[in-house]
C-alpha cells in the first residue's frame, strides 16, 4: 500500500494535513461549531479533555485566541490526556487519567475558582471490538468528564462529549438532562457513518437546586438496574438527534480522486505532528541500526 492510499480513502485525513491539523478530528469540532456556535467571543476558559494529539486544542486556539494562537492571550485552554502532547501556544497541558480523582483535582485547581465556559471531551478508549465493553468504557469516560465538568463549568456553560450510540444512550441522555437545559446528540459529517460515534452537545448548564459537586461521590457507580436501563412509559425518552456540518460537503465514507481541482497538482503532505512518543519507536530504532549495519 502506497503512502497516498489513505489520502485517497479518507478525504478528511488528507484535508487535515493540508490545513495543518494534527488529526482529522479537528473537522468534527468545526462541524459541531457550525451547527451550535459555541466557539464565540464570550468563551474565555476552556477544558479540552482527552486532547492528544491536539487537533481540538488547535481548533480552540485558532477560533478563540486567533490564527497564530497568540492574538487573544486572555483565552485560557487546559488540555488533558493520558498521553503526552506536543506543545501548542496558549494551551496548558495536564498529563493524567480523567477517571482518576487526582487528575480531576488538578484541573479544578488550575481554574482557581474561575469557572470554565466550555468543556469538551473527545475521549475514546482503545477499542476491544467487544461492543458492549467498548460502549461501557466510553460511557464511563463521558461520566468522568461530566463529573469534572460539574466542578469547573459556569452556570449556562456548554459541555460536549463523544459517545458511542449504543443501547445505553437514553440513560446517558437522561443523566445529562439532569444538568443541562438542552441536550442534543449530533453526528458531524466528518464522523464516518460506519462508526457508532456521535457527540452529546449539552448547553445551558443548570445543575439541580442544592447540587454540590463532590469527588467522593463521582457519577461513576455502575448501579445500572433493569429499571434505569430500560425506561418505560413517561420515563422513556427519545433522544433528539441531528446531523450537522455542511451536508453537501465531502462524505467521510467515500473515496475521492487525489486531483479535486482542475489544473492543481496533488501534493503529498506529511502528518502535521508526528507522534512524539510512539509505542513503535524501539522498532524504528532497531530498523535504523540494521540499515546502518548493512551499509557499513
Ligand atoms: N480530540 C483529540 C484531537 O483532536 O487530537 C483526539 C482524541 S483521541 C480520539 C482520544 C484520546 O482519548 C486519546 O488521546 C487517549 O489517550 C485519550 N484517553 C482515553 N482514555 C483516557 C483517560 N482515561 N484519561 C485521559 N485521556 C484518555
Structural class: alpha/beta
The biggest sheet amounts to:
8 strands, mixed
Q: How many helices in DSSP terms? A: 9
Report, as a whole number of angstroms, the end-to-end distance: 30 Å
Order of helices and strands: HHHEHEEHEHEHEEHEH
How big a fraction of the residues is strand? Answer: 15-25%
pLDDT under 50 segments (min length 5)?
217-221
Query: Which CATH architecture would you pick?
Result: 3-Layer(aba) Sandwich
Fill in the keyword field for this structure.
single chain; Rossmann fold; 296 residues; alpha/beta; binds S-adenosylmethionine; eight-stranded mixed beta sheet; 9 helices
Compile the SSE list and pairings.
Elements (H helix, E strand, L loop, with lengths): L4 H5 L1 H8 L7 H11 L8 E5 L5 H10 L11 E6 L9 E5 L5 H11 L4 E6 L9 H22 E12 L4 H9 L2 E9 L8 E9 L20 H4 L11 E4 L36 H15 L1
Parallel strand pairs: 1-2, 1-4, 2-3, 4-5, 6-8
Antiparallel strand pairs: 5-7, 6-7
Helix pairs in contact: 5-6
The protein binds S-adenosylmethionine.
